[in-house]
Design brief:
The protein is α+β, with helices and mostly antiparallel strands. It has 4 helices and 4 strands. Strand 3 and strand 4 form a beta hairpin.
Length: 169
């Protein structure tokens, strides 16, 4: 592990106070002090010397009320989603509305999954999703060969990321 002089440490603290990211600090250590560190080494150095990198605030998506859902396909049972909690932005198991994709988390997680729920895509197709301990995403309950609209994929990913963060994953 690299040891910094008092002057170098003061510079690093100043960079962090000015809003530098860990990548910025790592690059500046190389360019100004000829100190080459991996990202992990730079991170551990910051922890050792007590320098905190300020997180940049994330942009929060605008919350919208969901559009009335289209009729469910015939093969979806009447009680589909009955075990799901209504979306609540203060609830860590719920994701906010974001466009035309609606993502919910199950109150009771599917067996073998860390977290599970359902998604309604912009074309009205409803599917069940799950994330297992290996980080593999599963999507089921949709007709064989179903492909969600391309524009829905980024929305689904963003909502799933927010839902996972709120759930503590």
């Amino acid at each position: 592990m690299a040891n910094l002089t008092a002057e170098q440490l003061a510079k690093v603290e100043q960079w962090a106070a000015d809003g530098a990211t860990l990548n910025d600090v790592q690059s500046r250590l190389k360019s100004e002090f000829d100190l080459t560190l991996t990202y992990l080494e730079a991170r551990l150095l910051m922890l050792d010397v007590g320098v905190r990198i300020k997180d940049k605030p994330r942009e929060q998506p605008k919350l919208e009320a969901p559009a009335p859902s289209a009729d469910l396909p015939e093969d979806v049972p009447e009680d589909f989603g009955a075990d799901e909690a209504p979306l609540d932005v203060d609830d860590p198991s719920a994701a906010p509305f974001g466009g035309s994709v609606v993502l919910t988390a199950d109150q009771v997680t599917m067996p073998g999954a860390l977290i599970s729920g359902s998604v309604t895509f912009s074309d009205g197709q409803v599917a069940k999703w799950s994330l297992d301990q290996m980080g593999r995403l599963g999507l089921g309950g949709a007709p064989q060969g179903y492909q969600p609209p391309k524009g829905d994929i980024p929305q689904f990913q963003q909502q799933l990321d927010l839902l996972m963060q709120r759930a503590g994953f």
